[in-house]
C-alpha cells in the first residue's frame, strides 16, 4: 500500500520464498508496480525501489543516482522503465529487469529483443510483452513473440506501427488505435490478436472512437455508437465470430 507520505506498507500473504529485498520503510514514492512476486516503487526523484522474494536482473540493478526514471511497466515476471540521463544526452532509453531471458527482451529464440536506442515517451505491457512508443506516435513491440512482442510480417514487415494515438492490451494481445480511428491488432489470435499469417478478427475501417479490453477479448465503439467485440467472450468453450450491435440495430452507445 502507498501511504500519503510516500512510504510503503506491505502484507506478506502466503509467500514461502525468502524475501531477499524487503520493502522500503521510507521514501517519497509516487507509484507502485507489481509482477507476480516482486514490486517496484518509483520515487518523486526518479529513483526505483525493488523488493520481493525474487530479484533477477537482466540489465543490472536500476541505475539509481545516475539519471532518473520517468515511467515503469510490468509483465508477469519482469519490469521495464524509461530512463533519462541528461548529462549523457539520453532521454527515454528502455531499461528492463526481471526473470533472466524472459519476456523483456532476453536471449530466448521466441523473444523479440527490446529496442536499444532512446527517444521513447511511454510504455505499454501485457503479461508477456511490452510496447514502446516514441514522440512521433510510432510503436515498437518486444518480448514474447506470440503474445504481442512481434507483429506478423504481413501486417508490419519491420515490427513497428505508425500514427498511433493509443494502445490497449489484454493478457496476451494488443490493439493500436490510429489517428483516423482505424485499429491494428496483434498478439495471441485467440485473445483478439492475429495469427502468424496476419489473419485477424480486428475490425476494419476507420472511425472507432473507443477500445476496451477484458482478460482475453476486446470491444470497440464506432462513430455511430455500434459496439463490436472480438477475441474470447460470451461462451464457456472459447471462440465465437466477431459480433456487432449494429447487426441487431443497437447503436448510440457512447462509452464502454
SSE inventory with pairings:
Blueprint: E1 29-34, E2 39-43, E3 48-51, E4 68-74, E5 78-85, E6 90-98, E7 111-112, E8 120-125, E9 129-134, E10 139-144, E11 164-169, E12 173-178, E13 183-187, E14 208-213, E15 217-222, E16 227-231, E17 243-244
Antiparallel strand pairs: 1-2, 2-3, 4-5, 5-6, 7-10, 8-9, 9-10, 11-12, 12-13, 14-15, 15-16, 16-17
Q: Could you walk me through the main structural features you see in this protein, from its secondary elements to its overall organization?
A:
This protein has no helices and 17 strands. By secondary structure, the protein is an all-beta fold. It has a four-stranded antiparallel beta sheet with strand order 7-10-9-8, with no helix packed on it. It has a four-stranded antiparallel beta sheet with strand order 14-15-16-17, with no helix packed on it. A three-stranded antiparallel beta sheet has the order 1-2-3, with no helix packed on it. Strand 4 and strand 5 (78-85) form a beta hairpin. It is globular and about 50 Å long.
